[in-house]
Amino acid sequence: MLKACDIHGRDLKTLEQAPFAVVPLGSFEYHGPHSPLGTDIFLADGFANLIDSSFGGAVFPTVPYTACPGKTNKYKGTIPIRPSIIQEYLIDITMGIIEQGIKKIILLNAHDGNMGVSRTVAEYVTGKHVDANFLLVNWWQMVDINAAAEIGFEGTKGRGHGGPYEMSAVKAFRPDLVDVDAEDEEFKEVQPLSSYPYILVEGTPKAWDGYTGLIQQISYEKGKKIVEKATVNMNALIKNWLEN
């Protein structure tokens, strides 16, 4: 993949000719005692670098700071941006990319709190530029949630903030930065309220201390499986998007 930061001023046509742009979206947020504050940055960067280079896209710098939910704002280490600010900021970024001549943009997201703002920004910008086209990709959704046993999780699907699914993926990219101690507290999954999709917003969720999950099941091997599955599915999605 072409790195937008590496383009010289004299070579701007190379950037203009890119069929699409990738804007990775991260956060600077507490993910538990076992996890780096840059968890979402490493994931956004990591998956952006795994997009098939034959597609010819251009990767722009990862957005490191964003809005964070109330449930992590109270933990030191989290640096939240007001939602209205990150919305305006992301509008300016994407409008700037479109003005470079690139009309197709992937918002490659690694932070749950970016989901709403990504949709809002995409809807707004496509209203201003009717020829613009956004693909919103949340990396964690690129693996079937029912693949937990196949990945190697026992008695858990592994999902959740700072949990074994997310942190195993981080460990696949940066094995040096995920460190679970034997005394780190674990949290069993809370029974869902319904089998149908819903959104529950809580300042202090159950089974939670700035992170959740059976974190003793975090491993590099599971992370490699997660990243491999997510990468295959992500690239298939992008290929279909570009061809349609």
Defining traits:
244 residues, alpha/beta, five-stranded parallel sheet, 8 helices, 5 strands, globular
Summarize the structure.
This protein has helices at 12-16, 39-48, 70-73, 83-99, 114-128, 148-151, 164-173, 220-243; strands spanning 2-3, 21-25, 58-59, 104-109, 133-138. The chain has 244 residues and is an alpha/beta fold.
What is the number of E strands? 5
Q: How is the main sheet built? A: 5 strands, parallel
Sum up the overall morphology in one term.
globular
Tell me the strand percentage band.
5-15%
How much is the radius of gyration in Å?
A: 18 Å
Task: Give the count of helical stretches.
Answer: 8
3D structure, described in words:
This protein has 244 residues and is an alpha/beta fold. Helices cover 36% and strands 9% of the residues. It contains eight helices and five strands; from the N terminus they run βαβαβααβαβααα. It has a five-stranded parallel beta sheet, with helices on both faces. β2, α2 (39-48) and β3 (58-59) form a beta-alpha-beta unit. α4 crosses α5. The longest helix has 24 residues, at 220-243. 39% of the residues are buried. The model has no long low-confidence stretch (mean pLDDT 97).
